[in-house]
Design goal:
By secondary structure, the protein is an alpha+beta fold. The protein has two helices and six strands. The longest helix is centred in the middle third of the chain and has 14 residues. The radius of gyration is 14 Å and the shape is globular.
Length: about 130
Amino acid sequence: MNYPKIIIASGPVIIENNTVLLNQHGDKNMWKFPGGRLENFEFDDWNESLEETARREVKEEMGINIKIIKPLKTMCVPRPNHDDEYVVLVHFLAERIGEIIPGEDIEKWDWLDINNLPDNCAPNVKVVLGSL
């Protein structure tokens, strides 16, 4: 039996003054929350593994640290352009610590109005923001 490949990704949802921090990198020029894959299952603390991933990824992508406030909606979605692959998206409401210095792979970033998001947001963005 062929089982689908499951990828686990984690990232923060950072909201300030009714705007959300989103960036574009990788495929399709979609606006996404900062974040990325759980890597190698090597953690300092298994109880904090998803939080560590969110902290690591936002530091790599946006050059900031975060304070995690609480978990938000978790979703399982098909991975675009990859048959039989799914991504479990784990979101955390977080506060930004420091000034944004985007990483080299970030094509664009911005604070976007949570009540007037563009059409080219990743599907999870509006769902997660709507669950707040």
